[in-house]
Write a structure and sequence with these properties.
406 residues, alpha+beta, rod-shaped, 5-stranded antiparallel beta sheet, 3-stranded mixed beta sheet
């Protein structure tokens, strides 16, 4: 697979994963928003019912004062009594809406709100709407610009406000749940009923916590598989390129020994060489060395499986560098002489033994010499030398070939 194609697939998968993550985020946010809207609707219904209930109670005040006094035995009014409400006693007699004193004097009704009735009614409404959350509530006076009632008790007006009340005040001030009392318009309202849920945010998060966790888990799994798959693809691509390069190198490295063996064989068959035992032995030695080199290449082919299993090991041994270079030059000289070229050798006597893999180092030297021969436009002229450095050994091969870019 081409490199651009892999990058294109990575881009597509990244876009798909990003899109999936965004969609999941939108779904979860939508779920939270839906839960929030449901809660807002329920609280709005509670506030409206409470407002209507309080106004209905206020409608009885003028017509039932004497009857209330008879029931309670004191002149206190319906909004500041210590016994249970007498609505069930009074409603059949007077009926809802017969007397509307709060409409002519809203502040009078506002200042006489019954703590017990308000607290009981709110608790009932919250329970009926299945809202299992703690809440704070307060009755705010527009005239006094302060809260008259906080959580079922009269708020402190004089003196220092304690820390608890101060925190409740701040919470109620920023609450979005509020409704005007004893007024048909906001401008004529004496105040508001406000409700605040301290745990609203955590409640909304908990409502979608299962979806959020499962989304994170599955997205994490997909991301892990995505990264792992890309890693495998890149690794396989590298292995594929290595195999291609390996096959090309093997083809080149097999051709050179075969050509050298062919030249050595032809030379031995020459009548002049057959009569010279020294030359025959030299060419036979070259054939033997090149045959050994070919066997080494066969071993490299077998090592491909070991490379994939990561079980590959170099065969480190003591190698006399000058001898290795000298043998490589000797073998290459047959081809150089056939082309009418020349090869020279300059060995540093201080260069001796190194701990290396002889097969691989030999291949490096032979490949450089083969390329110097192959890519010479004229008769090849090659110079080989070794040099000792404090912490390294330099093997340099120069030629008169066509060269290569940096």
């Amino acid at each position: 697979m081409k490199k651009n194609a892999i990058y294109f697939i990575i881009l597509l998968l990244s876009i798909a994963l990003l899109g999936l993550t965004i969609i999941q985020f939108i779904w979860i946010k939508g779920s939270i928003d839906l839960t929030a809207q449901n809660l807002d609707d329920k609280v709005s219904t509670i506030l409206h019912r409470t407002k209507v209930h309080m106004e209905e109670l206020a409608d009885y005040e003028e017509g039932v004062t004497q009857d209330i006094n008879q029931v309670k035995g004191q002149n206190t009014g319906i909004f500041r009594r210590d016994i249970d409400p007498v609505n069930e006693y009074l409603r059949p007699k007077y009926g809802t809406g017969r007397f509307i004193t709060w409409r002519s004097d809203p502040n009078a009704a506002f200042d006489k709100i019954n703590l017990y009735e308000l607290d009981k009614f709110l608790k009932k409404e919250v329970k009926d709407e299945n809202i299992d959350l703690d809440y704070d509530y307060g009755v705010y006076s527009n005239t006094d610009e302060s809260y008259l009632i906080l959580n079922g008790r009269y708020a402190v007006v004089m003196g220092e406000v304690n820390g608890s009340d101060l925190q409740v005040n701040r919470s109620l001030n920023r609450s979005e749940y509020k409704i005007d009392l004893f007024s048909e318009t906001e401008d004529s309202s004496p105040g508001q009923l406000r409700v605040f849920f301290p745990q609203r945010t955590s409640f909304l998060i908990r409502s979608s916590l299962g979806s959020l966790i499962s989304s994170l888990v599955f997205t994490g799994l997909i991301l892990f598989c995505f990264i792992y798959t890309i890693t495998v693809i890149m690794t396989q691509r590298k292995v594929s390129l290595m195999k291609t390069d390996f096959i090309n190198n093997m083809t080149h490295e097999f051709k050179t020994p075969i050509a050298t063996i062919s030249l050595a064989t032809d030379s031995i068959l020459s009548p002049k060489v057959l009569s010279d035992d020294g030359k025959v032995k030299r060419f036979i030695s070259i054939i033997k060395q090149e045959n050994k080199r070919m066997l080494g290449q066969v071993e490299k082919v077998l090592q491909i499986g070991q490379l994939e299993k990561k079980d590959f090991q170099l065969k480190i041994a003591e190698v006399e560098v000058n001898s290795l270079v000298s043998d490589a030059v000797d073998h290459t000289s047959l081809n150089i002489n056939k082309l009418g070229g020349d090869i020279s050798l300059n060995l540093d006597s201080n260069v001796t033994i190194l701990q290396v893999d002889e097969n691989h180092v030999s291949n490096v030297v032979h490949n450089l010499l083969d390329n110097a021969t192959k890519y010479s436009s004229e008769k090849p002229k090659i110079h080989v030398k070794t040099k000792k450095h404090p912490s390294a050994v330099e093997i340099s091969i120069s030629d008169n070939g066509i060269g290569m870019s940096k």
